[in-house]
Amino acid sequence: xxxxxxxxxxxxxxSATTLAIAKADGFDCYALSFRYGQRHGAELDAARRxxxxxxxxxxxxxxxxxxxxxxxxxxxxxxxxxxxxxPSSEIPVTYVPARNTIFLSFALGYAEVLGARDIFIGVxxxxxxxxxxxxxxxxxxxxxLASLATKAGVEGSQTTIHTxxxxxxxxxxxxxxxxxxxxxxxxxxxxxPSGSGxxxxxxxxxxxxxxxxxxxxV
Length: 218
Known about the structure:
This protein is an alpha/beta fold. It contains 7 helices and 5 strands; from the N terminus they run E-H-E-H-E-H-E-H-H-E-H-H.
């Protein structure tokens, strides 16, 4: 019987679909989002909408001030969000240093307190921006770390990092979400939305989202 699971929820279409998958698999879902100093709060508004619509046992929003480090277009006002494609050989400036490691570390701690043995993250290695912490080998490494770094792991209780979207195209993710009743109108994928939360339509995230919906014929 599935038990409790921590779901990393950003408010985008990938994390919304991941939450819907965990819910459909019978897990008691505990959503975890972060106010990490990102350019806008619109994605957290989207995360709240998604959590309420799909249904979670609790939704925790943690504050982490990664703006103190900067180093990313998402956390440093001096670095502009690019509106043209980044060459595939380069990691884009929208990469936030070690972000998924930070987020998964908090999720691991939250899961241990909850007695949860499952963590879901919506990383994708096909239609994505080239971030190093979205690759299968990264997830496998963190899975190994989880078995070594916690009381639960040392005592033999394995924590599983679920990545149900990692080998899907954006179109396949959208189709899966629609099968599960995800209302994508509630989600936001844009890196640089307006003050009212409207997507810019030109950043990498907006272009990947539009491409996915076009290929899904939606």
